[in-house]
Structure to design on (270 residues):
């Protein structure tokens, strides 16, 4: 089978450069193009920007001319851009792997529409460890009763723009699923001032920002006299790049639809 040809969008950013580098280091895939929003990086060699030898694939501002000669798009950009790339993949019947965070419920609904014609693998966190942790959180939440309060703590670098993080919300959704409750109705994302006692059954979130932290997440199950903590710490953005490529290879040949990393990793029934 020929190498899978992948376009990296947001190729001038930290995650985009990591994707370009990881594609170059991974058998079975090849870089089909590098896309960035208009600006000073357009025209620069994507290989050189990623710390590699020149690959003769400069950054361009439009993915559409590249899509016909590609199998899919790897996308860790921003919500509006992600919707545009999903629409492009739907039009061309291609694979779209999206690790973008900060999507609204309306954005998620639009992705489902595009997934009628595109093969979309969507996850706010692509790492194996985080998705296994989510499966564990769901199982633990289903096992323990409401005597165990659920709190989710996350910390990221000081340039992250959304809070709680997409990964924290992924873990919260897993906890809510385990408890059989609606996260939207039981999420407590901020506490300030005289808040009163904690309401039984709520799922709390706390967000920290600082320095260069790639991503730390803890899910705490706290009951009188005891506490269980599940923790994941990301130390290298390469874990996300490697998992995104794994997701793209898994999606090759799949029918159109909206998939998750739980599908890719076979964790749906865990």
């Amino acid at each position: 089978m020929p190498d899978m040809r992948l376009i990296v969008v947001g190729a001038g950013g930290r995650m985009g450069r990591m994707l370009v580098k990881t594609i170059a280091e991974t058998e079975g895939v090849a870089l089909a193009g590098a896309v960035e929003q208009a600006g000073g990086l357009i025209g620069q060699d994507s290989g050189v920007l990623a710390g590699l030898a020149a690959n003769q694939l400069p950054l361009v501002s439009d993915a559409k001319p590249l899509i016909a000669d590609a199998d899919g798009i790897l996308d860790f950009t921003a919500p509006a851009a992600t919707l545009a790339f999903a629409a492009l993949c739907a039009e061309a019947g291609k694979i779209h792997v999206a690790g973008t965070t900060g999507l609204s419920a309306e954005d998620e609904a639009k992705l489902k529409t595009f997934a009628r014609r595109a093969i979309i693998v969507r996850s706010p966190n692509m790492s194996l460890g985080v998705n296994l942790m989510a499966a564990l959180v769901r199982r633990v939440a289903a096992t323990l009763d409401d005597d165990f309060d659920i709190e989710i703590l996350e910390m990221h670098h000081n340039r992250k723009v959304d809070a709680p993080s997409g990964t924290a919300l992924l873990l919260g959704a897993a906890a809510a699923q385990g408890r059989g409750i609606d996260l939207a109705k039981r999420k407590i994302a901020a506490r300030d001032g005289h808040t009163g006692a904690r309401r039984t059954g709520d799922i709390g979130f706390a967000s920290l920002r600082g320095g260069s932290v790639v991503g730390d997440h803890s899910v705490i199950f706290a009951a009188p006299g005891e506490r269980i903590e599940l923790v994941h710490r990301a130390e290298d953005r390469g874990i996300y790049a490697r998992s995104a490529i794994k997701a793209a290879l898994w999606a090759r040949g799949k029918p159109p639809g909206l998939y998750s990393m739980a599908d890719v990793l076979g964790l749906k029934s865990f």
Summary: DSSP finds ten helices and twelve strands in the chain. The mean pLDDT is 95. The longest helix spans residues 128-143. The two ends are 31 Å apart (CA to CA).
